[in-house]
Amino acid sequence: MTHIHFETKSDKPPVFKMTRPLVDAAAARAGIDAELRLTLGSDLADLAPLRTMAGLVTSNDVIRDARFPLAELAARAPSLRWIHIIGAGIEPLLPLDWLPPRVTLTNNSGVHLQKTREFAAMALLMLNARVPQMMTNQMRGCWDQIFTPSIRGRTLAIVGLGDMGGAAAREGKRFGMRVLGLRRQPRPHRFVDEIFALDQLHPMLGQADFVYVAAPLTPQTRHLIDRGALAQLKDGAGLVNVGRAGVVDYGALAEALTAGRMSGAVLDVFDPEPLPAASALWRTPRLYISPHCSSDDSDAYLPQTLDLVFDNISRLVKGKRLKNIVDRERGY
Question: Among this protein's residues, is 273 annotated catalytic?
Answer without folding.
Answer: yes
